[in-house]
Here is the input.
Amino acid sequence: MLKRTLGLVALAVLFLSSCEKSESSAPTMAHPTDAKDVKIVYIPKNTGNPYFNAVIDGFKQAATDTGAQFDTIGPSTPDATSQIPIIKDQIQRGVNVICISPNSPDALNQVFKEAMSKGIIMMCIDSDLTGNENLRTAAVFPTDPQEVADKQLEMLGSQIGYKGKFAILSATTDAPNQNEWIKDMKQTMQSDPKYKDMELVTIVYGDDVDAKSNTEAEALLTKYPDLKGIIAPTTVGISAAAHVVQSAHKADQIVVTGLGRPNDMRNFVKDGTVKQFALWITKDQGYVAGQLAVQLAMNKIRPERGATFSAGSMGERSLKDKNIVVASPPVVFDKDNIDKYDF
Ligand code: RAM
Here is the structure.
């Protein structure tokens, strides 16, 4: 009998302590019932990069359409850890949703865990916590990374007859999106015989800073006199590479391509320095993310694969594998269409 009573007491203690545990780690944030009470913040990679202005415009449009509150704040440099204190401040502020373009796939793990434990919805936009996707709620990207990678390889290959040396001028060494695209480009070069005569001689990093990107591009020209092309999978890098090739009068020898903003690249396309480059309609990412953020905060959809939601004026979207939502496909810009775009 005594044994039985002791057993029951032990069970009750176990039960109570497990209740305590799940209560203390349970999300504490209530779901707003009115969109005007939803607080969203967006943290770009850094503030000096105009690429993110269009993402922010998209968020603002979504906030206007839904009535939600929107703010943006970013670090001055895109270093791996520069966003940590900002996320901490936003946790303190009690926002419902933190949208972020992370500068590292893993340096933010701890602070993401902290925010999620408080019930804050964490969304990655433009770049991801690659390999740590379980630490965020959902993500919005322009398109499939493999498509972004293959498009860049093809734009270069088709212009150099699929033959010769080329270099990649990237953003930071930690940038999750650029690293994913570079990995995918390498894979395609291995698996598709079309690219067998193209040689990737080096990858350099301009840190998404104009001056450093210029210096790295200049060094490429000096170090590889027989270089046939530069792929810059970053808007800051591609305009630096185009500027350097234009100044060196080497546009006939070196093809510059990659991902660029039409407004940065217009003059280079018009004077023939650059023939083709690509980018998605950047504003769409912010708009789709803003719409998703409101609906997640209000618990109108569950963050799980297959869930669908209305992305306002952009129609219906759904969460794919790893809760990824695709915003809009890349557009290839050239002299025939560039004047149709202003961003
Ligand atoms: C730069 C940033 C951004 C990337 C674009 C293409 O502006 O690195 O993350 O998506 O380029």
